[in-house]
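Weekly structure sync, notes
Attendees: PL (lead), two postdocs, one rotation student
Agenda item 3: pending single-chain targets
PL asked that the sequence for the first pending target be pasted directly into the notes so everyone works from the same version. It is reproduced below exactly as submitted, 509 residues in total.
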Amino acid sequence: MKLYLDPGHGGDDSGAQGNGLDEKDITLAIALKIRKIILNDYENVQVKMSRTSDTTKSLAQRSSGANDWDADFFLSIHINSADNTSAQGYEDYIYDVSAKSSKAAKYQDLIHAEVMKLNQMNDRGQMKANFHVLRETKMPAILTENGFISNKHDAALMKDSAWQQKVAQGHVTGIAKAFGLKRKAVKETPATTTPKTTQTSTKTVYTVYVGSYKSKENAQDRVAELKKKSIKSSIVTTKISGATWYRVKVASYSTNANAVKRLKAIEKAGYDDAFIITEKETTTKTETKKPTASTNTTPTTKPTKSTSKPATTKPATSTSKPATPGTSTNPTTTPNNTTKEIPVIVDPGQFTILGPTFLSPEQMDQFVKKVNPKAPELGKFYQDLGKYYGIRGDVAFAQAIHETDYFRFTGVVNPGQNNYAGIGATGGDNRGASFKNQEEGVLAQLQHLYAYATTKPLPNQYPLVDPRFHLVDRGTAPTWTALNGKWAVPGTTYGQSILSLYQQMIHSV
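Predicted structure, written out during the meeting:
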């Protein structure tokens, strides 16, 4: 089943506005969630979108895009508005000449019912209209109006990501019923003949570390140095990308506040490479009852522990100073190579563009190929060039996924341009810059990020290939969320979307 998703408006066209919201932002958020849910939960589904970021698309581009792709269903997401601010609720539309027995009408019945179960809005009914995207598309098409941006009640819901998720789920459930989609199989634990009772308890532990080293001797030197300052510490080993690292542990706390307080004290003592790891410590007790001749059984309790170790809040280096210039001293994340380490971005607003790359090229490539098996293998470029410029290459990779729709290039930029970050694609039909090969395309993206992240001169090992480098107000976006309104206009959640993808990448390892 081929689903063409059309988030209404975008780019120069904000759509309806009200209560501090733009229609184009809400429609995109809902559409992206629809795509994620349906691809994650159902088999044999392909999704293409008229836009995956804040770009301008004409009505003709939207309808022709679906027709050229030969989509099975066209779904356009919109938000309503009215001069009368008391108007509120949900309604949807099919083409006004559609018969009641048409596929579009049947699909409308199912989608309308499922959305209304979850959206917490008044039901304004099922409508017909002569809208372009309903009239000019060759496949069954529906346009949904998901509340009134001009109404305070509806607008308050629209601001809530959880509500957006519910609305997206309603659309997906309706589509699944309409097309008889089959859910992806869920792996089940094989049944056993021996009854077991399992009790699991989980607690969060916040551990403060002062440095992470490839050399054990360096870690031992740090422990000795801390001892002179009456700071007790110990060495903890961990595996990152197959290599052993030695972390210097100071203390663990049950609350983040206490850990942050200790971190600040450590930094005040002169250690700017201290960081916090948030760990989920899970204890599982399994009682296995074995049948015997007696009516009594003896429970065997086997406690096991598994520890999830999220990313560090500072870049790890082989000396007492961070190797990468310009990294923030605020909590950020560090690498993880096993399922035991789950990075947590404590404050997205402080997560810097400059910093270490933790995911391996293979992990980056494997992540994107789960969605797009035909995606080019670019992880090596992002790792190598990220290291050279001191940029988080794996987060830049997440940015490229966001910009290209998992390298499927469903926007105006085409694959042959090797433009993975929409450089120069400033709206409308402007396809932006083109680069001679894949490495140059990644290089241009990293150089553009460098321009935003720092005012330092560009290192000169590689030629300048970013055609817009000198147009950047240097150093104005040291963090990923600071790219909002700069890399993407207005792009109020651009950086957050990139970091959300990055977290998905980390958790998939």
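Discussion points:
- DSSP finds 13 helices and 14 strands in the chain.
- The two ends are 29 Å apart (CA to CA).
Action: rotation student to compare against the earlier draft before next sync.
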